[in-house]
Specification:
Elements (H helix, E strand, L loop, with lengths): L2 E9 L10 E11 L1 H5 L5 E8 L2 E8 L5 E9 L1 H10 L3 E12 L2 E8 L7 E6 L13 E4 L8 H6 L7 H5 L2
Antiparallel strand pairs: 1-5, 1-8, 1-9, 2-3, 2-6, 3-4, 4-5, 6-7, 7-8
Length: 169
């Protein structure tokens, strides 16, 4: 079973912007799971993602933490676009910036729309405890905080978060 190992962080500063090597607009929508996940009733979310000229269908386990089962399959761009327009009720848009650091690649998601103002940094690893660089712009870890998961941002957007949700540690 394919397992994605990904840790999430908030930025400590905007200094990462000086090291961006490429950026891609991403739109992703949920075909199944977002509402059921919010109610604690789903084992997985099914997502359609379009990034540039590429598209994927992803089934991702509904568990918190750094390691989660993830099955991902390429889709024709036209099919993915049609699914986003007609079948997905919950959609998230963002710009993903790539920042290399000492042999690793940080993916920095700058959210758009109702999630504007939120920036989440991700790093994919080979194992949960793998050591990786900690640039000065890398802030607090939020890997286990499900409110930062895209599927949850689709249902409860950042602009609607309370001050308590925005400032919880």
């Amino acid at each position: 079973m394919p397992i994605e190992i990904e840790r999430k962080f908030l930025p400590a500063s905007e200094a990462w912007r000086n090291a961006v090597t490429r950026s891609t607009r991403i739109v992703q929508g949920y075909l199944a799971g977002a509402e059921a996940l919010a109610a604690g009733q789903a084992k997985a979310a099914v997502r359609v993602r379009v990034a540039g000229e590429h598209a994927w269908l992803t089934v991702k386990a509904a568990v918190a933490g750094a390691a989660r089962a993830e099955f991902e399959y390429p889709l024709p761009l036209a099919d993915a676009t049609a699914m986003l327009q007609t079948l997905c009720g919950d959609v998230v848009a963002k710009v993903r910036h790539i920042v290399p650091s000492n042999g690793f690649e940080f993916e920095i998601d700058e959210f758009l729309g109702d999630n504007r103002g939120l920036v989440v940094i991700e790093i994919e690893l080979g194992e949960v405890a793998q050591a990786f660089p900690r640039p000065a712009w890398l802030g607090r870890e939020v890997t286990d905080e499900v409110r930062y998961y895209n599927v949850n941002l689709a249902r409860h957007a950042y602009v609607h978060w309370s001050d308590t949700e925005r400032n919880a540690c």
